[in-house]
Design a protein that fits this description.
Blueprint: H1 3-14, H2 16-28, H3 33-42, H4 45-69, H5 71-151, H6 155-169, H7 176-245, H8 262-265, H9 271-282, H10 286-304, H11 313-337, H12 344-368, H13 372-390, H14 397-405, H15 407-428, E1 435-436, H16 439-445, E2 462-463, H17 469-488, H18 497-521, H19 527-555, H20 570-597, H21 600-603, H22 617-636, H23 639-662, H24 671-694, H25 711-721, H26 731-737, H27 743-752, H28 768-788
Antiparallel strand pairs: 1-2
Length: about 800
């Protein structure tokens, strides 16, 4: 017995380490797999098995020792366990009985439960069927609703319905067949809607193009009404200013501004366009529609920009321009209200295309026009087009620049028309003072052009100083000013007064003045016509101030700014020169007429032995002619002109008298002939003094009277009748009494002077002594003049 424990101890000591490891692992409940795997890997499974057996033996020993230690307790536990077994058997019998009873009762309940579960399954299936049916019914209702919308042309609600079906119902439709049908029909319906709205849109494109002319005409007509209202207001303002200037009262005026919504005036249906764009947006192809719209509108614009070759432009320009205006009014509305259908750059591109074509067309058509009226009509409509489209934000300056480049052409045509009219009124003028029988004639022909010389209304009938040519010419000039202002207004230049003034000067100088000068130089007019022309020029010269003020008023320039001397027309100076030319022509005609009367060399007996008691008969005719001439001149010519005519005629008579003495046909003359001329000269001097004072020229021209114009003839006669003619050589006496005489002329005339004492019976004269003294003095003068020469 002692040997056995000893052997176990030896064994345990040999494998103590490994056994301890296995024991620890088993005690901890760890996995022995790694140890077993390791033993097999190293090829020592027997050793592991041996160790396991050793561990088992150890545990058996421990159990045995434990049982020995708790034996009594174990016996008691076994006894108790036996009692528990008895109780368990009893309990088992009771449970079996209870189970039997329960089985009897539960079998009925199980049958009921199965029936209940079956009912629940049926209910679930029915509920699902109802739900599926409801979904199908909803989808079908939506399909019916969509069809109704399409049939009624309500495409947007139809698309919204389709979109609702696609998003909320399509993939939840329980019936595959129904779902497949709907899936196939949705694209077909969308394509149908697209075709429908495109068809409506195409019809709208045709309609809006045909309506563009009416749209443009309506808008341009509205702009014309606004312009007319503004012009009427400015006209009332000008009249009020004029009345204030002339002290006729104080007037207040105000600007009434009427705000009018353009969109309310221009009503055209954009619904098809909005609908088509909205539908395409809903379909997700809005960009495609934008391109389609822009392409078609550009094509329409290109077609609208083509002018008719079968119709004159002057007959078709309104339709042409109104069509363009309507087109771009529509495009502006699309840009503002269509929600991005059209971009500002696209509109600008279309406008540039239109500008390029329109400027080219207008320049070509303007170059072919031969009527100022036609050019003005096109200009007026074109500026109204510009005013209309400027309100919509379009840059219209290129159009106005075309007009500005055509202004010289227009004024050239206008000048040609005015020239023909002026030539006609000059040709038809009677050159007689105008007779006005009533106040309306006076207002129309005098007051309308500010030609009156007094503010007092004259008595009627009234005879004006001018002929009918003056008011007729003033009307033409006034019409020219109006035409010039009409063409230049609403253009590139906001202040175009200087341009109007330039063209007005051109009319007055190159047309009116030139026509008058041509009439003067034509050689077909007489003294009365020349006098009337001179009077007319004086009045026209005065009318220049009216023309300038009228131009300023029409241009909206303050009248006071043109009343300064430096602001006057150049034509005024030119007309003044022409007036002098008319006076010169008048004097030439008067002198020619006087020459017809003054035939001194033929009507005077230069060597008569008898002394005449009366003057020459021809001088009476001269005085009568002068009286008639000055009476007429006094009525129509200003004082300066009247003085020029009178002084010029008398100066010519004086020169004619001196020239008669110098004439080669007069070989000699005596004192009797000198006395005849002296008598004539006295008659002239008496007439000159009377006229000079009766015309009141003496109050203004004190330095040189009419009598002074005869000074050369008078001094010559005085010298020839002087008792001491040799005093002519005395510088003091000559300066005092003979300062108008020329040495050479006096010498020539004195050589012809032969007194009566040189005759055969000269020595028998009772005045022999006196004449002898004068003869000696005359001989001395002749000798001294010969020596001087």
């Amino acid at each position: 017995m002692d040997a056995k424990p000893k052997r176990r101890t030896i064994t345990e000591n040999g494998d103590a380490g490994e056994d301890l490891v296995l024991t620890t692992l088993i005690g901890n409940g760890d996995d022995l797999g790694p140890v077993v795997r390791h033993a097999f890997e190293i090829g020592r499974p027997e050793a592991l098995l041996h160790q396991l057996k050793t561990v088992v033996k150890k545990k058996e020993v421990e159990i045995e020792e434990l049982c020995k230690t708790h034996y009594e307790e174990f016996i008691l536990a076994v006894d108790e366990l036996r009692g528990v077994l008895v109780d368990a058997e009893e309990l088992k019998g009771e449970l079996s009985t209870d189970n039997f009873k329960l089985q009897e009762v539960g079998s009925v309940l199980l049958i009921k439960l199965e029936e209940l579960l079956e009912s629940y399954a049926i209910k679930k299936n029915v509920t699902e069927a109802i739900k599926m049916s409801q979904i199908c019914v909803q989808v079908l209702d939506l399909c019916v609703e969509c069809n109704n919308h399409i049939s009624e042309g309500q495409f947007y609600p139809a698309l919204k319905t389709i979109d609702l079906i696609e998003k909320n119902y399509l993939w939840s439709i329980p019936l595959k067949a129904l779902r497949m049908v709907i899936e196939k029909r949705v694209p077909v319906i969308k394509l149908h809607i697209k075709k429908k709205v495109c068809s409506q849109f195409n019809e709208w494109l045709v309609h809006v193009r045909s309506s563009a002319k009416n749209i443009g005409q309506t808008a341009i007509g509205h702009a014309a009404s606004v312009r007319q209202r503004d012009e009427e207001m400015l006209e009332r303002q000008r009249k009020a200013e004029e009345q204030n200037v002339f002290g006729l009262g104080d007037f207040a005026y105000m600007l009434d501004v009427e705000e009018i919504d353009e969109d309310s005036v221009l009503k055209f249906d954009m619904t098809p366009l909005y609908r088509a764009y909205h539908i395409h947006t809903c379909l997700g192809i809005q960009e495609q529609f934008r391109e389609y719209y822009y392409k078609n509108r550009v094509l329409q614009l290109s077609s609208d920009l083509q002018i008719s070759s079968t119709q004159p432009f002057v007959e078709s320009y309104q339709t042409f321009l109104a069509q363009i205006a309507g087109y771009f009014i529509v495009e502006d509305r699309v840009l503002r209200t269509a929600g991005g259908l059209l971009s500002a750059d696209q509109v600008e591109t279309m406008w540039e295309i239109a500008m390029t074509k329109m400027t080219s067309v207008l320049e070509e058509q303007f170059s072919h026009m031969g009527s100022a009226t036609h050019l003005l009509l096109v200009k007026d409509y074109l500026t109204l087009l510009g005013s209309t489209l400027r309100q919509y934000g379009y840059e219209v300056r290129p159009l106005l620049e075309v007009l500005d480049r055509s202004r010289d052409k227009y004024h050239e045509l206008l000048l040609q028309e005015c020239q023909q009219q002026i030539v006609n009124i000059l040709a038809n003028d009677t050159y007689e003072q105008m007779l006005m029988k009533k106040d309306t004639d006076y207002e129309n022909n005098v007051l309308s052009f500010n030609l009156q010389t007094t503010d007092i209304m004259p008595a009627f009938p009234f005879i004006a100083s001018f002929s009918s040519m003056v008011p007729n010419a003033c009307r033409i000039v006034r019409s020219f000013i109006k035409g010039s202002v009409d063409f230049l207004s609403h253009g590139v230049h906001s202040n175009f007064y200087e341009l109007v003034k330039k063209y007005l000067d051109k009319l007055l100088i190159d047309v009116l003045n030139e026509a008058i000068l041509n009439t003067i130089s034509s050689g077909t007019i007489g003294v009365s016509q020349a006098m009337q022309i001179a009077a007319n020029i004086s009045v026209l010269e005065r009318a220049c101030d009216f023309f300038l003020r009228h131009a300023a008023q029409l241009c909206g320039i303050p009248v006071r700014s043109v009343e300064r001397p430096q602001a006057s027309l150049t034509a005024k100076v030119v007309l003044e020169t022409s007036r002098d030319e008319a006076y010169f022509s008048l004097l030439n005609l008067v002198n020619t007429k006087l020459d017809e009367f003054m035939t001194l060399t033929e009507s005077i007996n230069w060597t008569s032995e008898e002394m005449a008691q009366n003057g020459n008969e021809s001088m009476s005719e001269v005085i009568f002619y002068l009286d008639t001439l000055l009476s007429t001149a006094q009525q129509i010519l200003p004082e300066e002109a009247l003085y020029k005519v009178g002084s010029g005629a008398l100066d010519h008579i004086s020169n004619s008298i001196v020239a008669a003495f110098l004439s080669d046909s007069v070989k000699r003359f005596n004192a009797n002939a000198v006395m005849v001329i002296n008598n004539d000269l006295k008659m002239l001097e008496s007439f000159a003094d009377e006229r000079f004072h009766s015309t009141k020229l003496s109050e203004k021209f004190k330095e040189c009277s009419f009598r002074d114009c005869l000074i050369e003839a008078r001094q010559l006669i005085n010298l020839l009748l002087s008792s001491q003619p040799e005093t002519f050589m005395n510088p003091v006496i000559r300066e005092k009494n003979y300062n108008a005489l020329d040495y050479k002329k006096v010498a020539c005339i004195c050589e012809k002077f032969k007194d009566s004492s040189d005759g055969i019976f000269g020595s028998l004269s009772s005045r022999h002594t006196k004449q002898s003294t004068r003869k000696k003095s005359m001989d001395m003068l002749k000798k001294r003049l010969k020596d001087f020469n």
